[in-house]
Structures are given as structure tokens and as C-alpha cells.
Amino acid sequence: MTATTATELPEHPRADVSGVAVSVDHYIGGRRVASPETFEDRSPLDWAWKLADVSRGDAEIAARALGTAADAAPGWAALGPADRGVLLRRLADLVDARAAELATVECADMAMLEESLRLRVIARGARNFLAYAELAEGYRERVWSSQGTRNRVIRRPAGPTVVITPWNAPFMLSTWKCAPALAAGNPVVLKPAEWSPLSCSLLADLADEAGLPPGVLNVVQGIGEEVGAALVSDPRVRRVSFTGSPETGRLIARAAAANLVPFTGELGGKGPLVVFADADLDAAAAKAAAMYDDAGQVCLAGTRLLVEAGVRDAFVERLFHHVDRHVLGDSRDPTTTVSPLIHPDHLARVAGFVERARAAGDTVVRGGRVWREGGLWYEPTLVEPRSNDSEIVQEEVFGPVLTLQTFVDEDEAVALANSTAYGLSALVWTSSEERAQRVGRALRAGTIWVNTFLVRDLTAPFGGIGISGVGREGGDYALDFCSDLVTLQILEGSTDRLEGPTDGEGGGNG
Q: At what angle do helices 433-442 and 410-417 cross, to 10 degrees?
């Protein structure tokens, strides 16, 4: 008896997620495609709440999606940035119009605070499409004369791009990676994390409604070791963009390297939050308490509190004052500030870090327990390590767990801040401009905030140092990554002179 393939199956019924209909199937070539096998998707808000049985992709689905993307590549590239921009702006408008539905689904699927999703995070997804449409259209080729030749740098679409995104903020992070690839003229195969795939399924619906040609944006669901591995190892892939753990990033990088495919990866962080005695201590403490938001499942969070010794007690008093205001509860409730963790396995991972810290002699100053038996909430936790070498200092916990250490001077502060293998972000609190410049330049991190946090300019480079990642996203850095950059040289006087540079239309970017 021959096994039924994905191409022969009817679509599964759409799942009802708090009143929003969501397809549980792949989106390939402008249509829904079911798989014979499925995987369960449950809500962190209540683990007894099964949201859907989702189509489980495999090597066949990966090959089909990439074949469709490869077929769509010439036509999408030929549109040029202006025509692509029309479609991406239409998609952005649809994201804004459906923000409430997207927030409802993502809140149920990964438990980020619904109000934050509706008012801030989903809107950022729309801005990603707008920003990259504008940047692609505004590209101006570099033109210059050298050694008797006229030169220009041309951007060409690289080709099919695989995007693999994490389970935290899946919709926004998917748009952050898909938008530059699409704007640059590349068709995309998006593989969302299996713990929170549903909002990315809605993105496929919106792309279809916006009129993106079939095969330009494809969404494939499944387990990373199965469909994800097949996607990144396919020789038709020309770019790979990934956000996730360093361990998975290494595997993907090896697969991409086998086909000499450029790879960019944002691989997590262990950011320091450095507080000097001259800082506004209350503002610094309030921001430190905010690191518990979304249960600490934010890669950019400053989870290592480094406080000048002379103000340690005053800072901790203010910190606890702000932590006392946190409310653990249902993420759909506007009064909730700390959401549950994504999955029972992740709760066990976070709790394991704290238990090992206790066993090793680190001091759990506050928290350190599961909140409400049977749920996925973990109390906001503060640990004072016995040593900077403690596991809980050096490894990413990715939960509502902060560490507290003190320093005596600027040199020690910088040494502690730079003492982990990570280098994604860092926060500094000081009232001295000279110190802000000096320490900011000394810290080893891709993004450094002084007296603020999570202020993002979409044109700025974003990425990690050390095991926090390779490559840069954001602005023209992302568009250059998604493009093949070609230098065209013409001997002076050998042809009729074409006056003026061309812009991104036509030769510039597609």
C-alpha cells in the first residue's frame, strides 16, 4: 500500500483560536498543502488547551516549497523594487488592519502579553515591510571613476531565501527577516518554530490577500530536525537567516557552508545591565525590573545586573519596589505584566538553572519557585552568584531570572560585562557623558543602550558578537546580505556615455 503524500491530501479544517480561524497547513505556491502527519500545538496559558494539530512537514514538503520558490524567483526579481514595494505596503496595511486578530492568536500560542502585542509588537511587523520597501526603492548605486574606468555597484536578488524564526515574538521576528528578503527580490520559505506556528500561518493569508505572486512567500511548518534541516541543506537555497540557539545555529551554519550559502544568525544573549553610582537609581531599577516582562523570554534583556558596590543596597531596595508591582497572570488580562513560559520543557529548563545554582552555593535572593502549581509561570527571581564563573552567570536562561553582582570601579565593570561568550546587547546607566562614551565603546556587544532600552532604529545594524551570532540585519545591511553585489566596470571612452546613475529600479535591485 502506497503512503499518502502531501500533494494528495485535502486541507485540514482551520483551527478556531479564540474566534480567529487559522489554517494548520503549509502555504506553498499560493495554496494550502496538508501533510499526512501532524504535531500538537498547545497554549502556555493553559496547557490543557490544545490549539491545533498542525501539519508536520518533511523533506518532501521542503523540496516542494523550495522548488516553488525557485520557480517564482525570476518573476519576483523582474518586478523591480517599486512594484514589489506596492505589494509590501499593501501587506503592511493588512497587518495593521488585522492587528487585533494577530495579537489574539499569538497571545494564545506563545503567551506574550496581548495588549503589548496589539499596541506595539504587531505594529512593528507592519513597519518592517514599510521600512524595507522604502529602503529598497531608495537604493542608489555607488558610481565612481577609477584607473580609466567608470564603476558602479549593482544589487541583484540573490535567490530563494530560507528564514527560520524562534518561538518568542514569532510574527514580528518573521517579518523582520522576510521583509528585507522580499524587498530585495528574493522569494522566501519561512519555517516558524513548532512551539508557536499559528501567527505565521496568518501572515501567509495576509500575503495572499495582498497579492504577492504564488511562490514568493511560502510557510512550512514542522520540527526543526526534520523539515528545517531539509530546507537549509537544499542546494537551491541562496541565503539562510536564522534566530535561535547557538547550538542550532552551528548546525544550520554547517549545512549552509556545505553549499557555500551566506548565513546570518542571531543566537541569543546574556546582556549586562551596568549601574554606576552616579546613575538615576530609580530609573535603572525600574528598567531592571522590566527585564521580567514576558517572563524574561527576550534575547536582548539585560539579565546580569552589575551594580557599583557603594549603591548596591539602595539599588536593590528600589528594584524590589518595582518588582513588587509585577502581576503574574493570564496574558489576556491587561493588568498582567509577567506571562507564563512557553512550554513545560522550557519551564523545567529555567527551574533547573535555579536549582543547580542553589546546589552550587549561589544565593537565591528572591523568587526561585514555580508560581501556581500546574501552570507555566515562574516567579521573578534574583540570584547572587558565588562566582562570576557560575553557570547561571555564564549561560542564557531565557526566563524571569536575573543575577546580581557588584563592582568597585569602571575597569571591573567592563571586565565583568565582557566576561561571557555572548555579545548581543548591553545596558549602561550613568549620568556622565564621558563615561557613557568610554564604557559604551569598551563593551563587547552588538547593541549598547545608555539610560534606555529597546529603542530601535530599523536602519541601524543589528546582530551579535561572539556566540550571539554572525552577520548583521537591519537597514541596508540586511538588503546587502539578501543581494548579490556586482561591480560593473566600463573603460572610459569605449562606449557612448550614459549620463547619471540608475536607481534601484531595473539594474539597481532587480
A: 40
Q: In which residue ranges of the chain is CATH 3.40.309.10 found?
A: 271-450
Read off the pTM.
0.94
Q: Where are the beta strands (DSSP E) in 317-396?
A: 363-366, 370-371, 377-378, 381-384
How does pLDDT run across 427-479, given as a tens digit for each residue?
999 999 999 999 999 999 999 999 999 998 999 999 999 999 999 999 999 99
Check: CB of residue 295 under 8 Å from CB of residue 168: no
CA gyration radius for the chain? Answer: 24
pLDDT by residue (tens digit) across 66-91?
Answer: 999 999 999 999 999 999 999 999 99
Task: Name the segment(s) of the chain with CATH classification 3.40.605.10.
Answer: 55-267+464-508
Return the closest-CA partner of residue 297 out of 368, 390, 180, 376. Answer: 376
Contact assessment for residue 388 and residue 419, using Cβ atoms and an 8 Å cutoff:
yes
* Strands of 36-134, DSSP E: 38-43, 46-55
Catalytic residues: 266, 299
Distance CA(58)–CA(142), nearest Å, equals: 43
Residue type, 206: L
Nearest-5° Cα angle at 170, 263 to 287: 100
**Which residues sit opposite 377 in a β-bridge?**
371
Return the C-alpha torsion angle 249, 254, 260, 264, nearest 10.
10
Q: Say which residues have a Cβ less than 8 Å from residue 79's Cβ, sequence separation at least 6.
A: 185, 510
Q: Which residue has the cell 551596568?
A: 274
For β-strands 263-266 and 239-243, DSSP reports them as: parallel
- For the record, the C-alpha cell of 64 comes out as 516542494
CATH T-level topology, domain 55-267+464-508: Aldehyde Dehydrogenase; Chain A, domain 1 (3.40.605)
The DSSP output letter for 217 is: E
The dotted CATH code for 271-450 is 3.40.309.10
**Cell 497572570 found at:** 329
In tens, the pLDDT along 208-244 reads: 999 999 999 999 999 999 999 999 999 999 999 999 9
Report the alpha-carbon distance of residue 310 to residue 307 in Å, rounded.
Answer: 8
